[in-house]
């Protein structure tokens, strides 16, 4: 069996363009629906579990998330990129992923006591050993997941994500309510992994066989190594902070960071994952036409800044109310973690597509270089700030990411020959409107201080949205109307 993707300007074909539009919608369902369900579940869990349980599982999950990168090895994206993939090549990748997962899980079982001793978290060893079985389960579905993305079957992926998240959440909340503590979170992880795997294999059009084909494996591995390197570095920019906080500040601070950063990760998924899911296969098919690719990049950045930046600024401005409504008064202080992360999210929204563009242009090494420099800056900031406070660590990590933004822009500019004037002209009207949004909410802080948190959240959020859209309507009406037309065409696409 060969799975083929036609060369050329794939988005010029009406049928494929329709698939891309449909994929964006279903990717939104997958990410937004899954995150909404996951957030409701997490909302219940943090009210049933103590900070120590949340912190212990956060430490274990950071280990799982890091090691799973090596299980996949970037070969899923390599399958996505290749013009043709044979049955034998898929079998080879499937077998390789499974064998590596066995080695990783075995290593966790052997080293778990050492990790527990090093992190000084009682009971972490058993959590690592049992929870690591999710890596083995997930490895069995990597090839299927890559094939579904390759074929733009995001509707099926959306259903899989929603059902597995819901199943795991029901199991976790039930066990937490029964008093199982941290093991409720471990059960949630394992149940979600099993259901996810079952739905990936249900009615699949590819199943492994004994046929092995090592041709092309070297090329896929070279591509995959670059992708793996980028993912490992990006992990260090986000998840490694969990390990650092747990090691230096203790499990209670880790629990506070886990809760305070939860909304950041949720909004990052809601705003970024939908676009990046589809952007990778779409931009890859336009790599031969840089002029067209550059114009699509401009349009994508404009649309993303229009939507994502004001959302992030609203999150920063409404952090006290958001955290209180979401997590309760028990987690007072978590808003101080969310604010700098939300500002970081607003800055990152301008460059959501940079790594995707570099990879699609055949420059994964540039993407790897950029991620490596970010990792070094992040690690240095953590080392400097860890002796001060949790908030100092968070602010330091955010500043380290922002410091590398000019280099990211320069690399994309070299790849696509984009114009700084054109790029700034696309985003500056929205950034100016965001300043008005922030100022309006800031002025409402004192008058609304005595209001119930939910009422203040709704009122201030509504005022911020009106100020943002009103400012654009007054000073950038043509740009606003053009974007609204584009969104409407996407909806009816």
Task: Give your account of this protein's structure.
There is one protein chain. This protein is mostly helical and 493 residues long. The protein folds into 2 domains: 207 residues, no CATH class; 261 residues, no CATH class. The protein contains 22 helices and 2 strands. The chain is globular. The N terminus is likely disordered.
How are the SSEs ordered, and which strands pair?
Elements: E1 2-4, H1 14-48, H2 51-72, H3 75-81, E2 84-86, H4 87-119, H5 124-131, H6 133-139, H7 142-150, H8 154-177, H9 182-201, H10 217-238, H11 240-249, H12 251-285, H13 290-317, H14 319-327, H15 335-349, H16 354-360, H17 364-385, H18 390-403, H19 405-416, H20 420-444, H21 453-475, H22 477-491
Antiparallel strand pairs: 1-2
Helix pairs in contact: 1-8, 1-12, 2-4, 2-5, 2-10, 2-11, 2-12, 3-7, 3-10, 4-5, 4-6, 6-9, 8-9, 10-17, 11-12, 12-13, 12-15, 12-16, 13-15, 13-20, 14-15, 14-21, 15-18, 16-17, 16-19, 17-18, 20-21, 21-22
């Amino acid at each position: 069996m060969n799975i083929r993707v036609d060369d050329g300007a794939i988005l010029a074909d009406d049928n494929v363009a329709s698939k891309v539009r449909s994929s964006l919608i279903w990717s939104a369902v997958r990410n937004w629906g899954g995150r909404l369900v996951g957030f409701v579940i997490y909302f219940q869990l943090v009210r049933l579990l103590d900070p120590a349980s949340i912190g212990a599982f956060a430490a274990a999950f950071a280990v799982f998330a890091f090691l799973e990168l090596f299980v996949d090895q970037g070969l899923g994206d390599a399958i996505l990129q290749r013009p043709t993939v044979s049955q034998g090549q898929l079998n080879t990748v499937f077998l390789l992923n499974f064998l590596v997962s066995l080695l990783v899980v075995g290593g966790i079982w052997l080293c778990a006591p050492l990790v527990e001793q090093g992190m000084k978290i009682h009971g972490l060893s058993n959590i690592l050993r049992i929870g690591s079985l999710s890596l083995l389960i997930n490895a069995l579905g990597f090839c299927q997941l890559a094939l579904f993305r390759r074929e733009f079957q995001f509707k099926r992926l959306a259903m899989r994500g929603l059902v597995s998240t819901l199943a795991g959440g029901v199991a976790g909340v039930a066990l937490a309510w029964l008093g199982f503590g941290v093991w409720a979170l471990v059960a949630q992880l394992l149940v979600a992994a099993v259901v996810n795997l079952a739905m990936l294999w249900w009615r699949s059009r590819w199943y492994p066989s004994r046929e092995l084909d090592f041709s092309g494996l070297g090329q896929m591995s070279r591509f995959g190594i670059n992708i793996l390197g980028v993912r490992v570095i990006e992990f260090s920019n986000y998840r490694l902070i969990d390990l650092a906080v747990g090691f230096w500040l203790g499990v209670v601070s880790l629990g506070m960071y886990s809760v305070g950063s939860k909304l950041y990760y949720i909004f990052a998924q809601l705003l970024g994952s939908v676009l990046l899911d589809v952007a990778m296969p779409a931009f890859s098919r336009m790599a031969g036409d840089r002029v067209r690719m550059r114009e699509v990049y401009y349009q994508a950045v404009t649309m993303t800044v229009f939507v994502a930046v004001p959302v992030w600024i609203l999150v920063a401005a409404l952090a006290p109310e958001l955290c209180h409504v979401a997590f309760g008064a028990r987690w007072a202080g978590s808003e101080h973690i969310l604010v700098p992360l939300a500002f970081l999210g607003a800055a990152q929204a301008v460059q959501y597509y940079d790594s995707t563009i570099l990879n699609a242009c055949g420059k994964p090494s540039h993407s790897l270089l950029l991620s490596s420099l970010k990792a070094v800056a992040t690690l240095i900031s953590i080392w400097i700030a860890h002796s001060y406070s949790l908030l100092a660590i968070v602010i330091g990590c955010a500043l380290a990411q922002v410091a590398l933004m000019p280099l990211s822009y320069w690399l994309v500019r070299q790849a696509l020959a984009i114009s700084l004037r054109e790029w700034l002209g696309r985003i500056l009207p929205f950034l100016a409107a965001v300043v008005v949004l922030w100022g309006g909410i800031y002025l409402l802080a004192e008058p609304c201080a005595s209001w119930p948190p939910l009422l203040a959240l709704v009122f201030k959020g509504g005022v911020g949205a009106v100020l943002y859209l009103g400012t654009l309507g007054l000073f950038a009406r043509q740009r606003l109307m053009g974007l609204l037309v584009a969104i409407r065409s996407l909806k009816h696409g």
